[in-house]
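Q: For a teaching session next week I want to show students how multiple molecules come together into a single three-dimensional assembly. I've collected the sequence lines for a complex. Could you give me the predicted structure tokens for the whole thing so I can convert them for display?
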Amino acid sequence: MAELQRYPVPADATPDVGRVVVEMKDVRKAFNVGTPIETEVLHGIDLTLDKGEFCAVMGPSGSGKSTLLNLVGLLDRPTSGTLAVCGEETTTLDDRSLTRLRGHNIGFVFQYHHLITAFSALENVMMPMLGAAGFANKAMREHAAALIGDVGLTAWQDNLAGNLSGGQQQRVAVARALAMDPALILADEPTGNLDTKSADEVFALLRRFNRDQGTTVLFVTHNPALASRCDKTIHVIDGIVSG
Amino acid sequence: MFSAWLPFEWIVAIRFLREGRLQTLFIITGVAIGVAVIVFMSALMTGLQANFIRRVLSAQAHIQLLPPKEVARPLRVDSTAGAGVIEGAIIQPPLQRLKSIDQWQAVATQIRAMPEVTAVSSVAGGSALAVRGSASRAISVAGIEPVSFYHIVNINQKIVRGNAQLKATDILIGTEMASDLGVDIGDKLRVTTASGAASALTVLGIFDLGNKNANQRSTFVALHTAQSLLGLPGGVTSLEVTVGDVYAAEVIARRITAATGVEADSWIKSSAEFFTAVSAQKAANTAIRFFVGLSVAFGIASVLVVVVVQKSREIGILRAMGISRGQILRVFLLQGGLLGLAGALVGSAIGLLALLSWQHFEINADGTPLFPLIFDSELFITALLLATLTGLGAAFAPALRAARLDPVVAIHG
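A: Of course. Below is the structure for the complete assembly, covering every listed component.
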């Protein structure tokens, strides 16, 4: 594949995150707290992800994998424990700060692609930069076009997202996750809905960005073959992480 | 591709509206119909009211200053017998003699200096008998100064035969009286008052005030002629006043009374029933506008509630990408505002077309419009602003709901 072509983004978009990207200590997550149906899903998780690490997360359905990812992705808050992302302790941050930290440092790839269908592939990749503001239109477009090129979809960049195949949409989702040059990519079963060939392509893309840019990847999968190709694998079983 | 100058919220709002084309089209049509009804009804009602008021006020002054009425003063016993004790038990109301406004020239000058007043004219008026051969009619004689009086009641426009350039020996009469007495331009009429004063006057013009009774009884002569006939040398029985804002006539009348001490009656007081009818019409128009506006607001809100549900997954993804709650709120507020604005633009155009069609098809027998419509740009600007604000207001609840969506729930359904 061709060498990745990078474009400069604002200085505050990619802070120097140091060696540790994610550090969870004794994190618990319960739902319906304070009610008779209170349920604890994660029971004291300790997890550290270093810069450039490619970590697979495996476990049966309902074991707490997605909840773990939501916490690391700052989409949800732990009930107790501490969680630092890119060196910043997050449990005390307000919604605005969490949103900013998430937007600038974390990229998401979901199982069902989740592109914005009203926009083209290129525009979907531009969207995080557009929302963050401060990017020149031309720089945004060039950066997004380079990423679309990196995932091999230049010919489809102006197609509406809804008109692309599942594999293509997931590749656009990978490009979008990389738009802000994040320190961390969270991939929640990104290959679970794809055929074997497309799944391999998406995995290879994530692996390539991980190697070339040092992006840390947390990769949820049910596929042991893919997990075996990661740097390390953690298992989440009944809300407890085992290495 | 994104416009280089449009902020994120605008781009997403416009694209979401474009994506739901049919939904957007329906709601814009709904808003447009509402705005068209408001524009059409408002212009029609305003035109109708202006026409009514013009017809009523074109034949009378907005404010009339009259001399104080004579009142009987009861005799009282002197102070030694106790104040307030009435001696005479029966008090007869006095006859209201024709009398002049005291110091009327000074009063007229004082009123002319008021900024709200546009014209002041003095009138000497009273009752008389018009005699032509063996026929006679009771008439009301109004002695006027043509130059100033025609600024108040433009008799020139109401003349159907002859002219209105009154001189000392001329008289202007109504069409009904001319017909009753069988007179025409240049004929003589003998005008006699109750005191016996009489004068032979030449019919200079015949007018139509648009009211049969007024055309039967009203006559106009020169001020000096009326003063001689009515025994009021140098005096006037009323001062007629017009003002810039006809609806402020009552307030100005009270101000004039306070400033001059002369009783002033406005058309609002003297035509109270008419004014009540106009006010009721205004209230009905306001009620129609309010309820149409309300239905427009609910229309926009209900569509946006559906859009928020439809777009909840996208909202979740946007939030995951680092889009703030405030940005999501603005995206949906903008959609409401844009729907309101677009609906208002289309609605104003439809309303304007409807008004032009109405003016074209609803005509008098002579081909003139039933009444002139008022195409006030302020009406259209107000409609645009109100519809946009209504859209923004209606979008607030759905926008807040969108902004408060939990991204985890939104993404995973």
